[in-house]
Amino acid sequence: QIQHSRRIDCHTHYLPRHIPHWTDEFGYGEFITLRKPKLQQPEPLKDGEESPQQQNNDEYANGSHLFKAPIEKQMDMWKGNKFFRRVEPNLFDLESRYEDMERTHVEKQVLCTVPVMFSYWAKPEHTLKVSKFLNDDIAKTVDENPDKFFSLGTLPMNDPNLACKELKRCVEELGIRGFQIGSHINDKTLADKSFKKVWDVAEEMGAAIMVHPWDMVGFDLMEKYWLPWLVGMPAECSLAICSCIFGGVFENNPNVRWLFAHGGGSFPFTLGRIEHGFNVRPDLCQVDCKVNPREYIRHFWVDAITHDMDAFKYNLKLFGDEKIVCGSDYPFVLGEQEPGKLVCECDDLTEQSKDKILYTNVLDW
């Protein structure tokens, strides 16, 4: 008998509670740290630090009026010496996470870092150090809680040679079998030939790859109204998928198991335009791959985060019930607050199909 409440959430973010102050260590950059909130009597700032503008607590906390945990349990994320955002304890505290999992019927979570930690902009040797710290920590967390978590590592993709070495280390020494990467790497898309060696090693090691939008193109233009997250992120997902199609990534490394976050972003809903462009401008679109984009639709997985039943049903028609996985973007407010709720409420799905999406598909991925 299928238990409809059983769920594996394939898309959850996690950070260590204590993160080294790499900005101080390396002497540059906006590396992330976690600090206790300063609201009433801020401590004296170090040279070069910029204090948040505290016109009111909600503005300073960047949405903390939506939070459930008391402020003494929250933490502030800082990018170098600048305040970035406030986060609830369920991002870094396992007990808070366990409570949420119990409440939302999630049996296990797939843990991955927060994309802002990718640090592709840094010197490669420093990105590698950040990646190793995060990978060691997440592997330890999973090893100590194997009944609760799976792990996805992170890679220094700004240096493909270092990325290959870290991928092998994670698989062979840490037991990590999947990796989260960004939708592009600095000024290169995933189609760039320099990444071919990474896909080769992933294929050789049997590693899965999850692509998450980050560093959204046009950020400065869209900064108001939260548009980088509402418009930029869906576009980034489409950029990544189209890069893998047109760049021949899927064709040349057919055994790499790809998952794209946020339901594939805007890609599914612009597939007609993408295919039309492929057909009418082969001189531009078929330079590196002559396979119709539609042929790759069920070559990869997407998560179920669409926030809309009609959009989910469209993805279901497009990808089928074997290539969609339960994912929530936990613990952030833009994610699905009850993982799998949309799947459970979809009347187009049989009970067997619901179980695939909620549970077994992520195991296949």
In terms of topology, how is this protein built?
Elements: E1 8-13, H1 22-26, E2 32-35, H2 57-61, E3 75-79, E4 82-87, H3 94-103, E5 108-112, H4 124-144, E6 149-151, E7 153-154, H5 160-174, E8 178-182, E9 184-185, E10 188-189, H6 196-205, E11 208-212, H7 219-222, H8 227-246, H9 249-252, E12 257-260, H10 271-280, H11 282-285, E13 301-303, H12 309-319, E14 324-325, H13 341-345, H14 351-364
Parallel strand pairs: 1-5, 5-6, 7-8, 8-11, 11-12, 12-13, 13-14
Antiparallel strand pairs: 2-3, 3-4, 9-10
Helix pairs in contact: 4-5, 5-6
Descriptive labels:
alpha/beta; six-stranded parallel sheet; single chain; 365 residues; three-stranded parallel sheet
Q: SSE order in H/E notation?
A: EHEHEEHEHEEHEEEHEHHHEHHEHEHH
Describe the sheet with the most strands: 6 strands, parallel
Strand content: 5-15%
The number of helical elements comes to: 14
Calculate the terminal CA-CA distance, rounded to whole Å: 23 Å
* Strand order in space, largest sheet: 7-8-11-12-13-14
Poorly predicted runs are 52-62
